[in-house]
Design a protein that fits this description.
Elements: E1 2-6, H1 8-11, E2 19-21, H2 26-36, H3 38-44, E3 55-59, E4 62-63, E5 79-84
Parallel strand pairs: 1-5
Antiparallel strand pairs: 1-2, 3-4, 3-5
Helix pairs in contact: 2-3
Length: about 90
Amino acid sequence: MARVAFTDNLKRHIACPVVRADGRTVAAVLDTVFAANPRLRSYVLDDQGRLRRHVHVYVNAERIADPIALSDRVRPDDEVFVFQALSGG
């Protein structure tokens, strides 16, 4: 199972500890996480199921290429990191 971690900024708004999740794609891994923590979905995805504007996902320190369908491959030993970027001055 992939290890899924979330940025500390996201943790300020909702409990989202590091978890292990099955899935062959980023979408499938996140679906597994959201099944256990449904409120987290709206912080990460918009109403179309796409990453929110200021959210980025990395697999093994590389930003995913497909933020719309989240089709990037995930292996069982990968680490998925969900990063909520900060904006402002």
